[in-house]
Design brief:
385 residues, alpha+beta, Pseudouridine synthase, 8-stranded mixed β-sheet, two-stranded antiparallel sheet, 26% helix, 22% strand, globular
């Protein structure tokens, strides 16, 4: 195990034997001791676990709806065919494989802007290379396109839990370039909280989150149940240079990067300065940010940089590994600000529990569960896998 101090150099070392099973003291993996985290702090400090209503999330896939927002070129032309696909129960990589097989293209040639949950009803855009209109191969491409399931009307109803369709194309456009990660401008969420009642306490919490925002934590989907994805990523670190599975490599690195960001944000939240710009803050649009670790100089300085480096001292071997992996320093807002936040009570019918629908739009990369955890407590699996 690497022993860390403020002055001593640190490095990643391999364990002589596989990590022992997890204990309350933590796992020793990837050369550092990882203590599985307790609950992250809340911004609404008056809403203790006892005061928050316990709800069921994702009782049905259609209880969690995500509609990707993409800004398209006005020109409906180009060598890339964009498909807007609604689906139920498919992860993003799974639907990529479905499209690749149906359209007879390589999965690596299909572009998309972001990952969406599997246990949900979602809609997002995908890009495929396509022959120009009238060119060789265009007729065959169009025939394959017409064979894909299509849906009109309300997209979420077309692939609802009661529908015979598991996925369907809802729109087709031509665009000049392949879709890249992060090309979308946001995600619109419609979420049904089963067992919730729209009482004065919940309504007040919704109003406060609408005004102030919530801590922009990476959610359970990134880390897995009990942080198991962090444990796997740490165990993988010593062998990362021999890893040839680029997709798996990217997942491990994103998990570790997210873990470091959450450490900084949790500290800022406990100090009650997560909405403030500290001296030397690397602010974006006047909002405080935290580090997405990688190579290069920290964008922050003075007090802000000191806080970030002190928070990450126990994770310094991981920070160095992220640099060696070639990732570049980036920033992420500490605040997730829901846009067009609304809510409504759904009365129980036929013996079913009451429910509250909450709808809002978030910027790319922000997690809906990080908004909801300020409002209610959850029963069951939150990973969405």
């Amino acid at each position: 195990m690497t022993v860390l101090s403020a002055d001593a150099p640190v490095s990643i070392v391999s364990n002589a034997a596989p990590p022992e099973p997890a204990t309350d003291a933590g796992d020793v993996t990837g050369g550092i001791r990882y203590t599985r985290p307790g609950p992250l702090p809340l911004a609404l400090r008056d809403r203790s676990p006892a005061s928050r209503q316990a709800v069921v999330l994702r009782q049905h896939n259609s209880d969690f709806q995500v509609d990707e927002q993409l800004r398209l070129s006005d020109l409906d032309d180009g060598q890339h065919c964009y498909l807007q696909v609604a689906r139920n129960g498919y992860s993003t990589p799974e639907i990529v494989q479905v499209l690749a097989q149906a359209m007879q293209v390589a999965a690596s040639d299909i572009g998309y802007a972001g990952m969406k949950d599997k246990r949900a009803v979602t809609r997002q855009w995908f890009s495929l290379p396509a022959p120009m209109a009238g060119a060789e191969g265009d007729a065959e491409f169009q025939a394959k396109l017409r064979a894909l399931p299509r849906a009109t009307g309300a997209w979420h109803q077309a692939v609802s839990d009661e529908s015979a369709l598991a996925y369907a194309v809802t729109a087709v456009r031509r665009q000049p370039r392949k879709l890249r990660r992060g090309d979308h401008v946001g995600n619109r969420f419609s979420i049904r909280l089963v067992g919730a009642r729209l009482d004065a306490s919940l309504q007040s919490a919704l109003e406060r989150i609408g005004e102030r925002g919530a801590p922009n934590f990476f959610g359970h989907q990134r880390f897995g149940n009990d942080g198991e994805n962090v444990t796997r990523a740490l165990a993988w670190l010593p062998d990362q240079r021999r890893s040839r599975r680029s997709f798996q490599r990217g997942l491990h690195l994103s998990v570790l990067r997210a873990q470091l960001f959450n450490q900084v944000l949790a500290h800022r939240l406990r100090e009650d300065n997560w909405t403030l710009c500290l001296p030397g803050e690397a602010s974006e649009d006047g909002m405080p940010t935290g580090p997405m670790w990688g190579r290069g100089k920290l964008a922050s300085s003075d007090s802000a940089a000191e806080v970030e480096q002190r928070c990450l001292l126990p994770w310094w071997p991981v920070a160095l590994a992220l640099e060696h992996a070639g990732l570049k320093q980036q920033r992420r807002s500490l605040i997730a600000q829901p846009v067009d936040l609304s809510w409504r009570q759904e009365a129980g019918d036929g013996g079913e529990s009451s429910a509250v629908w909450v709808e809002f739009t978030l910027a790319p990369g922000s997690f809906a569960t990080s908004i909801l955890r300020e409002l209610v407590s959850f029963a069951g699996d939150l990973t969405g896998e």
